[in-house]
Every structure is written in C-alpha cells, then in structure tokens.
C-alpha cells in the first residue's frame, strides 16, 4: 500500500507520523460508508456539533443497510451532529430515508436537539434552495458526502457547496470520483460533450481522462485547491475488493481544517479495524461535550 501514501501538509507531518504510518488496510467499496462514518465519529468528538449533508443519500445496496452511509452517520454515538440534510432522486429510496428518520430513538436529556430534513429530487436542482432555506452558520462544522456512481453530481453543485459559507472553514467535501469504469462510462454517453461539461464544469475533463490512476486523482484534487481554495485536499483510494484489485473510486477529501487529513488517514486505517481505547482517543476528547 505504501505507493498510495500521499504527501501530507507539512504542518501535519509530525502528527501524521505519530498517528499513522501508512494506509494499512485497503477500504473496498462495501466499506466506503464505514470510512465516512468513522471519520465523522472522530470529527464530532472534536467539534461536538455539526451539519451533515448527503447529496446522494439513498442506499447503494438497499438489502444491506449496514453499508449505508446515511444510516451509519445518523446512528453514530455520541449524537452530537445536529442537522442532517438527506437528498435523493429515487422515490423508493426517499421512502427508505423517511423510515430511517422516523426510526431514530428520541433524544436523551443530555443530547442536543436534532433536525433531519429529507430533500426529494435531483440534488443538483435542490441544493441551492436547501442551503437558502437552511443556511449553515459560518462557525458551524459542516460535511457533505457526494457519493455519485458516475456523472450524477454536477460541478455547479460542488461550487455551490464550496461557496456557501462566507467565513470560517468551508463545507468539507467527500467527493467520489469514479475511476475503474470512468472511461467505459464516458464511451457510453450519448451526448459526451454536454454530459461531461455539466459534470466537470468545463472542458478540462479531457485532461482528467488523459491521466490514469493516482495521477488522475491528483489532477482532480488540484482543482478543489485552485478553484475553491480548499487548504487540504487528498485522494483516498476505494478498492474493488478486500484484497485490493482495481481502484474503483477515489474519495477526494477537501477540507480547511488542520486536523482533517490526519483524521481521515486514521479513519481509513481504522474503519475496519478494532475499537480504539479511551486513551487512544484522548487527543480528540480533551474538551467537554455540549
Ligand atoms: C452510489 S448511491 C449512494 C450510496 C450511499 N451513499 C450509500 O452509502 O449506500 C447514489 C444514489 O444517488 C441517487 N441519485 C442519482 N442521481 C441523483 C440526483 N441527481 N440527485 C439525488 N440523488 C441521486 C441514486 O438513486 C442512489 O441512491
């Protein structure tokens, strides 16, 4: 796995060396939701609050809800994330999201009040209205999962999310860039120019497609840095199966928070591993809960 060790922001190098050495276990597609769940678990121990937006929130495998990111994040403890926005195009999956919302246990006295908003429809069309009706305060930590299968997430949607907060850290993004089947999916497009211009936002998609593997992922990361000014942007490979195989996606993690990249490495290494002890988590829990 060491060939997929990416350069870390210099400020984080020492921390990174202490917390992780390399990506120990490959995350494969069945476990990508666990990666997001584990990362948010760590992050919430630091922020004690936050908003979670999921633009493509329906389950990929409706018969295996344990692989469903929205469910893992909603059910994660402690329940300190306060606002959820779960968006989905398929009417059937919107129903699943509603049942998930309705099955959540009542809050305890110690837990903050929670809101769970379900937005039915095309996220590219609803994102603007959703953020206008529920603006994320500048000081609030916010995360958005963009788990597209191929070209479902328009670049304009990514831009809307990145530009939403007027100060403080931008909405953190988990953007799924398809890799292994990207070229095949492109050849299957009827209106290739139109579809790719919408997906990638400009004509530099040909530069993206001209690259392979990690170079392609790095090229995409650079765009999040240069166009939206995210401070820390790194690609995390999601493999075909447990033993490795093809790199199916890169999860591009874009954040302004200094701890974000080390925590994502930690989550990547721990998503499938053993539970950590209170001592190991001490660095995250040094301030009191709300
Ligand atoms: C890859 S799956 C998401 C998997 C999910 N994150 C999980 O953990 O299982 C993509 C989802 O996006 C939905 N979808 C596709 N196009 C969409 C759009 N334009 N707006 C909102 N949802 C969309 C699909 O119906 C599907 O449920």
Describe this structure in words.
The protein has helices spanning 13-19, 32-47, 69-75, 91-102, 123-133, 155-163, 182-187, 192-200, 205-210, 213-228, 260-270; strands at residues 27-28, 51-54, 83-88, 115-120, 142-146, 172-178, 232-241, 244-255. It has 290 residues and is of the alpha/beta class. It has a single domain (2-273), classed as Rossmann fold, CATH 3.40.50. It has an 8-stranded mixed β-sheet with strand order 1-7-8-6-5-2-3-4, sandwiched between helices. α6 links the parallel β5 (142-146) and β6 (172-178). α2 (32-47) packs across α11 and α5 runs parallel beside α6. It is globular, with a radius of gyration of 18 Å. Mean pLDDT is 87; it is low at 1-10 and 15-22. S-adenosylmethionine binds next to β3 and α5.
Radius of gyration: 18 Å
Number of helices: 11
As a percent range, the share of helical residues equals 25-40%
Largest sheet entry: 8 strands, mixed
> What's the CATH class, please?
Alpha Beta
How many strand elements? 8
Strand percentage, roughly?
A: 15-25%
How many domain modules? Answer: 1
CATH architecture: 3-Layer(aba) Sandwich
Q: How would you describe the oligomerization state of the chains in this entry? A: single chain
Biggest β-sheet: strands ordered side by side in the sheet: 1-7-8-6-5-2-3-4
Structural class call reads alpha/beta
Distance between the termini: 39 Å
Summarize the helices and strands and which ones pair or pack:
Elements: H1 13-19, E1 27-28, H2 32-47, E2 51-54, H3 69-75, E3 83-88, H4 91-102, E4 115-120, H5 123-133, E5 142-146, H6 155-163, E6 172-178, H7 182-187, H8 192-200, H9 205-210, H10 213-228, E7 232-241, E8 244-255, H11 260-270
Helix pairs in contact: 2-3, 2-11, 5-6
Bound molecules: S-adenosylmethionine.
S-adenosylmethionine (SAM) binds at residues 33, 56, 58-60, 67-69, 87-90, 93, 122-124, 147, 149, 152.
